[in-house]
Specification:
By secondary structure, the protein is α/β, with parallel strands linked by helices. It has 15 helices and 22 strands. The strands form five sheets. The protein has an eight-stranded mixed β-sheet with strand order 10-11-13-12-16-20-17-18, sandwiched between helices. Strands 1, 2, 3, 4, 5, 6 and 9 form a seven-stranded mixed β-sheet that branches. A three-stranded mixed β-sheet has the order 14-15-19. β14 and β15 form a beta hairpin.
Length: 518
């Protein structure tokens, strides 16, 4: 991954491929381009005319806009890169951390193929330094594992591999010896590395990432970071009565797995809080017997993004040494049609003992999650949060960039929403209307896996709620929209797997450790 350091060097004298500065839109209808703090020395080298030069080149300061121009004489870097921060802050306010994060990501992506860049962007405090570090590391992400060596050689330009991500970032204006700055950057590195690992998993083709392979990745990471791991294979699942996970995975030649990752704080005591994260891990979703039509299955390798997010969050918590116990449950299966696959009309006996009539085998995520949530409830955690690419209905409601939050506790739902906004992950609280529960009544079983078509995302949440242990706060994050980005990259968001919900889960663990959440 891209190397990152804090530096007190002057932008004018630092040897690099580029100097990155920030620009913003001035206030009011007549507001021109504004040079952001951190770029004073660069502006001075242009005789104070950097803004007018950039405006001549068409720069507006719009968020994520990138403009390149030759560096002034005397600079050791040949290029200056101006990245837009959006609207200039109101008087006495500073640039928001997510604006900085997005700008750093856009700049890092624009410098693909470069060896080193110096970021002279606004840094008011350690939080700004952490945001810039996180944005740069996430923006520089590239998934090239399946690119052939021949193709890589063909992209060589001017002695550089044009497809290689930016190799090194020096953050100017930081304080390398300040404990708060160092901690912020170290945190950003740990979170970004694990989030990028989640992106790698989401982007990995399903022929190479089946449930067993995913479990092996989790086992290796757990060993590296001192996390206890337990893997339930198909025999253990059958013995334990995990009818939901087995029912989804029975049609595939690649058998299902349930992985338990347990991070225990080194300072754990009787009063240490315990969070359980549960992730949907359908490594490929064909829809099963209720087969998805052409045009709806090409990206279904991403249906394990919830499990990838949970995995990444647990490892990040361990790397950060958070004073909270975190258990991750990865419910892994491949949903395929075959002679042995679950049929519409079949009834499954779940781990909780409830029976479920399967009306649609493409509503499989809730089945694997239900078993994992019921199992997680046995440990009596202080809260359970499940993460899943669960419903197309949530995408219809909130679009491709916002995930929905449902919960059995309004205060907990509000807390998660605020945390998600804090870290820059768009989200929206959603209700669980009691009247929608009746639509899942079954004449044959305790409950059906489908209900009313309208409000389908809420119906799925109501289904999951049935399997949460009594008295346990629970939230459900439906990340179907933002988990996999099919459009052009923007900010620090790449094409493909995004790592959605990782930062929300990590921040939730941090707030819980600090006692900010009940």
């Amino acid at each position: 991954m891209t190397a990152l350091t804090l530096s007190t060097a002057a932008a004018t004298g630092l040897r690099a491929d580029a100097i990155v500065v920030g620009v913003a839109k001035g206030a009011g209808s007549k507001g021109g381009l504004v040079i952001a703090p951190g770029a004073e020395a660069v502006d001075k080298a242009y005789d104070g005319k950097l803004a007018s030069v950039l405006e001549t080149l068409g720069a507006s300061g719009g968020e994520g806009e990138v403009t390149k121009l030759p560096a002034p004489s005397g600079f050791k870097a040949p290029v200056v890169v101006a990245v837009g921060l959006g609207e200039v802050p109101e008087k006495d306010e500073t640039y928001g951390t997510d604006a900085l994060r997005r700008a750093a990501g856009a700049a890092a992506r624009a410098l693909t193929g470069s060896k080193k860049a110096a970021f002279a962007l606004p840094v008011e405090d350690a939080a700004d330094a952490g945001a810039l570090a996180e944005g740069a590391l996430l923006g520089a992400y590239s998934f090239d594992a399946y690119k052939s060596i021949a193709d890589a050689k063909a992209t060589k330009k001017n002695g550089k591999d044009a497809k290689a991500p930016l190799a090194e970032v020096a953050l100017l204006g930081g304080k390398p010896r300040d404990k708060a700055y160092k901690a912020a950057v170290e945190r950003a590195i740990a979170v970004a590395e694990e989030l990028n690992r989640a992106r790698d998993l989401v982007n990995t083709p399903p022929n190479d990432l089946n449930p067993e392979a995913f479990a092996a990745v989790a086992q290796a990471a757990a060993k590296e970071h001192g996390i206890k791991v337990q893997v339930f294979d198909e025999k253990a699942l059958a013995k334990g009565g995990f009818g939901g996970i087995l029912g989804v995975g029975v049609g595939s030649d690649a058998p299902p797995r349930l992985v338990k990752l347990s991070y225990t704080s080194s300072k754990a005591g009787k009063n240490t809080k315990h969070l359980a994260f549960v992730g949907k891990g359908i490594t490929y979703d064909s829809g099963g017997i209720s087969l998805k039509p052409a045009g709806h299955n090409e990206t279904m390798k991403c249906d394990m993004a919830g499990a990838a997010a949970v995995f990444a969050a647990v490892v990040a918590a361990a790397r950060l040494g958070l004073e909270v116990n975190v258990t991750g449950w990865l419910a892994l299966a491949e949903n395929m049609p075959s002679g042995s696959a679950t049929r519409p009309g079949d009834v499954l006996r779940m781990y909780s003992g409830k029976t479920v009539e399967v009306l649609n085998t493409d509503a499989e995520g809730r089945l694997v999650l239900a078993d994992a949530i019921a199992k997680a409830s046995e440990d009596q955690p202080d809260a359970i949060v499940d993460v899943a690419t669960l419903t197309g209905a949530m995408m219809m409601a909130l679009g491709n960039r916002t995930f929905g939050i449902m919960a059995n506790d309004d205060a907990f739902r509000t807390s998660i929403h605020e945390i998600a906004e804090e870290v820059g992950e768009p989200s929206w609280p959603m209700p669980l209307p009691a009247d929608l529960r009746k639509g899942m009544d079954s004449p044959t079983a305790d409950i059906a896996n489908m209900g009313e078509r309208m409000g389908g995302g809420l119906v799925a949440g109501l289904f999951l709620k049935e399997f949460v242990g009594e008295g346990i706060a629970w939230a459900h994050l439906d990340i179907a929209g933002p988990a996999f980005h099919e459009g052009a990259p923007f900010g620090y968001t790449p094409k493909g797997g995004t790592g959605s919900a990782v930062r929300t889960l990590v921040r939730l663990a941090e707030h819980t450790a600090s006692g900010d959440l009940g």
